[in-house]
Design goal:
alpha/beta; Rossmann fold
């Protein structure tokens, strides 16, 4: 991003999304990194963080392009699950370059291979029986993509924003802009969905610039690489136009189940958390997935 635009972008986030801005500052991720320096030594801990709690179940949590977990820092997301009785190992994965996991830290367009190798080594070391990928928005796209190349047996996502080309299409942007009913009745949700949609437009162009269109991963293609794709649950917001449309791509895939959440927001996880429903919902979905394997 142009250095002159960075202060403007930060001001917009602080003004319209103060909670997200605070979480980003707590995680040290408010600044946008254009990419690695050529001589920069790769510090894997910037991209993959591991918590080994001796559990038989490991959650691979993919951050979205805000480099947060459903707009929450990881300690808050962990607490949400712990407060409802969950005990898991955690693998926290984030793309600090905000390039949809397409860009590797060495500057090459081999993000899929880089993250897959790092996560795979961690999963081998943890040795859990159940590996579950979780993500929202761009993190949901990553959860689908990496489940096709790693020993992951279950996928749980919330409003996965892919394919980017469709999500950022002119028609999609126009529908969001002209959703005047939402603007009048739910202005905060309207603003959030508008900013998310415009953000995907920016990210799509950014990824094409950084890695080239031919190197951008296709999450659904990656997911379907396995002869028997893992069980996947897609929670989607019924009253968020882009996400309600995106879920149609899963209609004819038997291993994917779409479950509606009555919400007008893209970040329905945050709304579920406010209702006190998020932790229980995830626990129940994890238990249902594990039950199918036993």
């Amino acid at each position: 991003m142009n250095r002159l635009l960075r202060p403007v972008a930060k001001l917009i986030v602080r003004t319209f999304f103060p909670g997200i801005a605070q979480s980003l500052e707590e995680e040290g991720q408010l600044d946008l990194h254009d990419g690695p320096a050529g001589t920069e030594r790769i510090d894997i801990s910037k991209h993959i963080d591991v918590e080994d709690n001796g559990s038989d179940t490991t959650l691979i949590c993919f951050a979205g392009m805000a480099v947060l977990y459903a707009a929450m820092p990881k300690f808050e997301f962990r607490k949400t699950l712990a407060d409802t009785g969950g005990s898991y190992n955690y693998v926290w994965v984030r793309d600090i370059y905000r390039a949809y996991y397409d860009l590797a830290p060495d500057g090459s367009p081999n993000g899929l291979a880089f993250y897959a190798q790092g996560i795979g080594e961690v999963l081998d070391r943890l040795g859990s029986k159940n590996n579950i990928a979780i993500g929202a928005s761009g993190g949901g796209a990553a959860a689908f993509a990496f489940s096709g190349v790693l020993p992951i047996g279950q996928v749980i996502v919330f409003n996965p924003a892919f394919p980017m080309a469709a999500y950022s299409s002119r028609g999609n942007v126009l529908r969001v802009v002209l959703d005047l009913g939402k603007l009048l009745c739910q202005p905060k949700a309207y603003t959030e969905v508008l900013f998310v949609t415009l953000g995907v437009v920016f990210l799509n162009r950014r990824c094409r610039r950084l890695v080239g269109a031919e190197h951008m991963m296709q999450p659904l293609e990656c997911y379907l690489r396995k002869q028997s794709p893992p069980r996947a649950t897609v929670f989607y917001s019924t009253n968020c136009l882009p996400d309600a449309r995106q879920v149609e791509q899963f209609r004819d895939i038997p291993s994917v189940v779409a479950k509606p959440i009555v919400s007008a927001r893209h970040n329905c996880m945050a709304e579920l958390k406010q209702r006190g429903e998020l932790g229980k919902l995830i626990h129940e979905e994890i238990a249902a997935g594990i039950a199918t394997h036993t």
